[in-house]
Design a protein that fits this description.
Helix content is 19%, strand content 19%. The chain is an alpha+beta fold.
Length: 79
């Protein structure tokens, strides 16, 4: 990754994952997608990364309105 590069991570809203209603007939084919949310949660406490979490941005905080997206970049050291 370049010094000023950004990484985008999607499907980061664990609430969306946990409240998704899967039809009974589709449950055998359902693949959990909570990995990105777990990864972002681990990075929250990592001092090497800056995270911009756009999950339910601004007006939509009471309901899961999207699957979530996070922008991730390395922290820049002050010289």
């Amino acid at each position: 990754m370049s010094e000023n590069g950004l990484i985008t991570i999607h499907d980061t809203d664990k609430t969306y994952h946990d409240t998704l209603v899967v039809a009974e007939g589709a449950k055998k084919d359902f693949v959990p997608f909570d990995g990105p949310a777990k990864f972002v949660n681990e990075l929250k406490n990592n001092s090497e990364w800056d995270l911009v979490n756009l999950k339910n941005f601004r007006n939509f905080t009471s309901k899961a309105t999207s699957t979530g997206i996070v922008l991730l970049g390395r922290k820049i050291e002050n010289e």
